Amino acid sequence: MSSWSDTKPRQVQSSCSPADYPRTSKRPCFPGLLNLLERVLDEMNISSVVLASYWPLEGVDGVDETLSMLNAQNLNTIVIGPGPTFRVPVTTLLRSSGISEEQNTSDIRLDMQDFRFDIAKSDSSLALKTAAFDFTYVSKLNYFCETETCFAFIPNMERQLMFWDSQHLTISGIEWFGKILADIPQLQAEFLDSNKHERMKNN
Questions:
Q1: Most distant CA atoms of the chain, gap in Å
Q2: In sequence order, what DSSP letters do the residues of 105-155 get, joined into one string?
Q3: What are phi and psi of 148, to 5 degrees?
Q4: Cα(169)–Cα(164) distance, integer angstroms
Q5: How many whole angstroms separate alpha carbon 114 and alpha carbon 153?
Q6: Where does residue 74 fall: left (phi above 0), alpha (psi -120 to 50 degrees), or beta otherwise?
Q7: Which residues have CB under 8 Å from 203's CB, separation 6+?
């Protein structure tokens, strides 16, 4: 009998977006972040920065100063937008929809109405903020979702779950999305150009 595969990566994470902003009834996110970034950039030879988060709406609202500072430092900045974040674990959504672990998974989708917050709004707002500085924006949502539904399983991989909880990718999901990122020209130029990295080491 086959069952769903949800191999989990080890991870350390923060629920904050990369910005210094207050949160409702919680500790503030990254107080003093801009000063810390400036110190790091003064001490290290960095030419590119990637910002990634699950991007709650309050985090998108608070990211302007981070983007402005990176622009002032003339850094090549790549922003990876929010992906799906569901209100409950994906396996719970699947089982509550009557989907069994024996079913063929190629056509199974999850409804955007099960998102924890308005991720489409977060995605579009962050894209506009990024475009204002002419930074590269990767809409993660566009790769994981089509119209009003999102992948529950890795395309063309039977029973390989995309998420092991409500938002975090399985190892198979990471590998799938990693291949997508590797094909984006701006990321290829920054992170897959071995000659560029050799030049940076010699500077």
A1: 59
A2: -TT-EEEGGGBSS-HHHHHHHHHHHHHHTT-EEE-HHHHHEETTEEESB-T
A3: -110, 10
A4: 6
A5: 16
A6: left
A7: 45
**Neighbouring residues of 184: CB distance < 8 A, sequence distance ≥ 6:** 138
Contacts of 201 by beta carbon, 8 Å cutoff, 6+ apart: none
- Would you call 117 exposed, middle or buried from its count of C-beta atoms within 10 A (0-12, 13-18, 19+)? middle
Backbone conformation region of residue 32, classed left if phi is above 0, alpha if psi is from -120 to 50, else beta: left
Rounded Cα distance between 64 and 20, Å, is: 10
Domains contained in the chain, CATH given: 21-202 (3.40.50)
| The pair of three-digit structure tokens given for residue 111, joined into one six-digit string | 């409804």
Dist CA 162 CA 108 (whole Å): 11
pLDDT tens profile 91-147: 999 999 998 887 877 789 999 999 999 999 999 999 999 999 999 999 999 999 998
Running DSSP on this structure, what letter comes out for residue 13? -
Which pLDDT belongs to residue 22? 85
Looking from the CA of 143 toward its CB, the CA atoms found within 13 Å total 20
